[in-house]
């Protein structure tokens, strides 16, 4: 099998484990197919730094999955190390050879590619219509947490609560705990998955936690349950301060509406909001964005968008 890129010795990202080369090559090539699709369909327009960051995040995810499987199959035996050269990988991923390999791979399924391409083209056009209208001067930055960190002093001027709605496995919540080490991060999730169907995910998606609460740093408090049950109880005990940062990662309209409705009394001018899935996919106007527009119309707040990525957007209210 030849995907147009290779694993080489180098630095930056490391996968550890007793993995035969052939297994690693096949597994890794297949896992990067989605990134190749994105690149072939237009992601090569991203800057090199943005592409490198996207690949780095993808590799970090793959690394965890590979290590988990290694441990399952091989126990705790001593593990030789293999390194991935990030610069070489980005060069290979963006290369003509990779694109040619991908085209050959999908040559027998051109209708699928045409449909996927048109679907993504329409979603992108719809997204950029909204961006031009609502946030023409906002920064495009893939790394959401880097933007939050860069604005941490502005966020804390309100001296209020920091909330993460949609904890899932806890990656973003842990990052917030690092960015704001002296503050308590309040995280909310059912840990049971989506309560209803989303635009491209069925009810129960993201439910692989099966109700299990992930381990968190000492400055994180987690609240397990559906938002319409947990948020009013939290608000009743925490009305003394406004919300400084509200991070919304619940995807669907009904949950976003619940969040903004319940927390309306403690959302003030100067509150920062991050919506993780505000834009960037087919049907985005029907979910987090719809609930936010209703909130703005109801309250009269003015949103000031600071940055956006492939799906997220960050703003503060006036």
From TrEMBL:
Pfam families: Methyltransf_24. SUPFAM superfamilies: S-adenosyl-L-methionine-dependent methyltransferases (SSF53335). It comes from the Bacteria. This is Methyltransferase. It comes from Nitrococcus mobilis Nb-231.
